[in-house]
Amino acid sequence: MNMDSQIARRRVAICTPSVATLLLFSMQACLTNGWTTPHTHQAKRPNSHLYQSSPKEPFQRQQEDTAAGQSMSSDNVINGNASFSSIITSADSSKSQLFSAFSALDLNDQYDAVLTGLCANKILDNVSVSASEALEIMSDPLQLLQEMNQKKIRASPRSLMAMIDSAVKTQDASCMQKVLTLARRNSAGLDQYASLQTEIQLLPSSLTQRVKCADGSFKTRSERLEQAASIPDDDREQEILSAFIFAGLCGACILTDVLSMESVAPFANVALGSALAVGAIDNFYDLFQGILKFAQKDNDNKMNLPDKADLPLGLGSGKLTGKVVGGLQRLLTVDAERESQCEAAALYAAYHLGLACFAFRPNALEGSALVIESTRGNNEIDSLDNSAGYLKLLIWLLAPVCAESMKHSQLIMSNPKEATSFLDRLEKYETDNPGSLPGVWWQGEEKERDDLLAWAYAEAEYMLRQNRGAVEEVARCLTGGAATVGDCVAVMERW
């Protein structure tokens, strides 16, 4: 490839401010470090770095070059002697306006614009980028944010939101932890991140040990768990199966009429009518009694329905057809607000407890994987293989259950079995790899395991009740369906 073709390839039209900013900074860094080849993300010269410091700031140096009236040809650009602005555009008026606009920004805004541009153009706006590619690209924004911290340059909420959303796209807990750590050390700071992890009360090691509860009283483990709300029961598998069976039988009965199966249709219609009648009596018996009393209020000869206690098979209590009704509700319920409340509770708990996992729907697999990854020691994550770590993860898993049970009698969007499955996975991993998780102290002790789950649920419930307003704000942010983790962090940090 000749020199002219190289020059042609480097002349790109700037369509958006963020792209322009990214190219400006890249070429500034190239010239500052004395590179003689065009910079790409994959190709760097040894002993040089994109964010390496120089005696003068790269932006200041370019301003001085412009003030001196340097104007080089494109041949000199290839040799590393010309101002980078001639590479960006071939029109003198365009390049002067572009560079003048960028030079008019102060140093904080220049760093901030480049940081946002790196995240937006390389990761967030690139729908084709994979998680592994995003993780590789994140090295440049991370180094730039670290340099900003060293120079005490304040990052804007916009750039920190872009960093967090980019870390989410990598699907890497270690990368997310590093981003949050650097963002917290920045002068802008993350005031709310991990702010509640010191306020949770660990499960007492002894049944008789008294601890100070959140309400200020001192109670033993047993006393607190006796007064705390229990984890709601959930039998969604049986409920959904029952609903499918009921729907299938009703469909089969209706099909006999559609196909004119005269020999079977009468019996099918009786079965369908009986099933519907039983369902109505079992679930709406009180309503029928009220309607009958109202209709006979002026009648001397009143007819009363039997008491529910006298009905056979427990009809009228809802128990006979409860699983079918519960399953139908699960299959037919579409409630974006209810779902957003569960997601907001999980996100709020994870962020304020300092967990590097922001799944809107927490699950046992992700929780156990985070514990195992935290024990490897070659990442930014503090070990979660301890009582505090397991309690925080259980609070995260149970927070959606608490949020939903506070407003609804049936759990549809959340699943309390994720917490028990989380403990099952850890126990199995420790059994298969003895000594790998020494913090799994409850293994083989059913009482300790049950108390740990109940204690975590009590802590999650107290956290959500004390911060109900903040959780509701996050839920409103999520209700629209377009909010990202960065948007929710902005709401929690009140940016």
Describe the structure.
A hairpin with a 5-residue loop joins β1 (210-212) and β2 (218-220). The protein has a two-stranded antiparallel ribbon. It is mostly helical and 495 residues long. It has helices at residues 3-10, 17-32, 58-67, 74-78, 85-88, 92-103, 107-124, 131-137, 139-150, 157-170, 173-185, 221-227, 236-258, 265-295, 322-332, 336-352, 364-374, 387-405, 417-432, 446-466, 468-479, 485-493, and strands at residues 210-212, 218-220. It contains 22 helices and 2 strands.
Main features:
60% helix; mainly alpha; disordered N terminus; 495 residues; globular; 1% strand; 2 strands; two-stranded antiparallel ribbon
Short précis:
This protein is 60% helix and 1% strand. Strands 1-2 form a two-stranded antiparallel ribbon.
